[in-house]
Design goal:
The protein has 168 residues and is α+β, with helices and mostly antiparallel strands. Helices cover 48% and strands 11% of the residues. Helix 2 packs antiparallel against helix 3 and helix 3 crosses helix 4. The protein is elongated. It binds FE2/S2 (inorganic) cluster.
Length: 168
Amino acid sequence: MSLKINEVFGEIANVLTDEQKQRGVLIHAFQKIQEEHNYLPQEELDKLAVELNVPMSFVFSTATFYKQFYFTPRGKRIVRICTGTACHVRGADKVLHSVEDEFNIKEGETTEDLSMTLETVGCIGCCGLAPVATVNEDIVGEIDNTKLDMMMDKIKRDEDINLDDDDE
Ligand code: FES
């Protein structure tokens, strides 16, 4: 990975401190690495520290500051169960526990085969569709038993999550 400060910042580089530039370059690099690996492997962080000539502690403190970066492998499917108020009232716990039981993982964990990571999230802004989950970019709303089974089945089969299309 080539890290050119001017390519990352353009003219704004003139008003940034060296540390701000380094952090900016790191964040840009983290995003690229995570795009490729789905998380930040230690060996990639080691390479970054060498390439930028900064201490590993600086790399690590920058990465850990942001919730968007992960340090362990993540699943191909990221399943997020909304546990915001509306979803909680309409059965989010049941959805969460069903997925946990079905895939034998707890919230925050990834299946051994790396097919899925299970997370919870606060309100995602679709309260009218509660209870809601997302599977990568797809939103699954009004989750009842049937939809829940279909969603889990599709995750297991590695199929697209088009549950609303299936309803038609
Ligand atoms: S509380 Fe779940 S979408 Fe708003």
